[in-house]
Design goal:
Structural class: mainly beta
Keywords: Acyltransferase, Cell membrane, Cell shape, Cell wall biogenesis/degradation, Lipoprotein, Membrane, Palmitate, Peptidoglycan synthesis, Signal, Transferase
Oligomer: single chain
Helix content: 10-25%
Number of strands: 27
Largest sheet: 5 strands, mixed
Pathway: Glycan biosynthesis; Cell wall biogenesis; peptidoglycan biosynthesis
Number of helices: 4
Protein name: L,D-transpeptidase family protein
Radius of gyration: 36 Å
CATH topology of the largest domain: L,D-transpeptidase catalytic domain-like
CATH superfamily of the largest domain: L,D-transpeptidase catalytic domain-like
CATH class of the largest domain: Mainly Beta
GO molecular function, one term: acyltransferase activity
Pfam family, one: Big_10
């Protein structure tokens, strides 16, 4: 019996040893697994699955007990949102606003003090605005323009946060030159360099307005790139006293044309003016510019607009040829001898029309009138660079 008891005891002792060893191994594995888990805890705002998220100020990423190593935010087309991790590695914020009506995916990685990595993935969707605005822009995409052409945007709603809107628009030039924006009222923003563009310059305008809150509850919808090229330089100077216009192309005078400027009581604005529209034939009615019923000409040929208030340089077929180069008889426009019809008829007006671009400069001097207002047409060149930047 002693032998039997010994055997049982020996058997029981062997079984107990295996049980204790298994528990020890399991505990060691669990401890090792726990030790491999990163202590870094990532938080993404807004929450995963959130809807109608604001396009500005809502997206933030932070980490506790660790530092961020990467943050990637992409829209549903795969375009990334620029952002920056803070110097201490504890947070990340976007450097741009988000687009409206768009789903975004967020992927974040972080590490704790022991270098252990944790990750987080979320998805959210931005708001769909009820009220929107766009900016009508000049010049058109692909255009070749004169050296005086600004980039001009007219917004469909008055803007109460101009800084946010202007930040979302970039205008770059090749060769590079500083370009600054200037607001005229709350619905127009123009961009230009300090001096006229250099001929041959390639200009790129990026409108990243989708999701910009231009006024409370009113959001931009445009995401567009516009490119145009600056052609040759042409600056034409009208001397109202001498009744002439000298056309200078790339620094050399190529023609002098007799003109008739605004007569007494209707003198022509002075200053630098930009050709903003060209029409082979147009109607001119004095009632549209507040002059009553003084004239209504249905077929003015070779008309090029200089101001929004109604100043044109255009062909004139109804006046005696003797007035051109000798007297000022118009209601404020600059007239050149022409024939009826607006065709390529070889007249001075036809020649000037055919040799002009949208964006060319026409300078008027010695008319004894005031300088044209910078916002009357595309005529911001009449502001100093210092005033333009303010």
């Amino acid at each position: 019996m002693g032998a039997l008891l010994f055997a049982v005891a020996a058997c029981g002792g062997s079984s107990g040893g295996k049980s204790d060893d298994g528990k020890a191994q399991a505990g060691s594995t669990a401890a090792k697994a726990a030790d491999d888990v990163s202590q870094a805890v990532v938080k993404v705002t807004p929450d995963d699955g959130a809807k109608s998220v604001a396009t500005t100020g809502a997206l933030r990423v932070s980490v506790a007990k660790g530092t961020l190593t990467s943050v990637t935010v992409k829209d549903d087309q795969g375009a990334a949102v620029d952002g920056k991790i803070s110097a201490d590695g504890a947070g990340w914020q976007p450097l741009q606003h988000l687009a409206s009506s768009t789903e975004y995916k967020v992927h974040v990685t972080a590490k704790d003090a022991k270098g252990r990595v944790s990750a987080k993935d979320t998805t959210f969707a931005t708001l769909t605005p009820k009220n929107t605005f766009i900016g009508y822009y000049k010049p058109e995409n692909g255009a070749t323009v004169g050296v005086g052409m600004p980039v001009s945007l007219n917004f469909t709603r008055g803007i109460t946060d101009p800084a946010a809107v202007e930040k979302a628009i970039t205008v770059t030039a090749d060769p590079a030159v500083p370009v600054e924006g200037h607001w005229f009222g709350n619905d127009r923003l123009d961009f230009r360099p300090e001096k006229y563009w250099t001929p041959g310059t390639k200009v790129t305008v990026k409108l990243n307005l989708d999701g910009v809150e231009g006024r409370p509850g009113v959001y931009g919808t445009q995401s567009k790139t516009v490119k145009f090229t600056v052609g040759r330089s042409q600056v034409s100077t009208v001397d109202a006293d001498a009744h002439t216009m000298k056309v200078v192309r790339d620094g050399k005078q190529i023609r002098q044309i007799p003109i008739s400027a605004g007569g007494p009581g209707h003198t022509t604005w002075e200053g630098q003016m930009v050709i903003s529209e060209k029409d082979p034939v147009t109607r001119m009615n004095s009632q549209t510019v507040g002059l009553g019923g003084e004239y209504d000409i249905p077929d003015v040929p070779h008309a090029m607009r200089l101001t929004q208030s109604g100043t044109f340089i255009h062909g004139n077929y109804w006046a005696s040829t003797g007035i051109f180069g000798s007297s000022n008889t118009s209601h404020g426009c600059v007239g050149l001898h022409d024939e009826r019809g607006g065709g390529d008829n070889g007249t001075p007006a036809a020649w000037f029309y055919n040799h002009s671009l949208i964006g060319d400069i026409v300078v008027v001097k010695n008319s004894h009138d005031k300088t044209v207002a910078p916002d009357n047409g595309l005529n911001g060149w009449n502001m100093s660079w210092a005033d333009w930047k303010n």
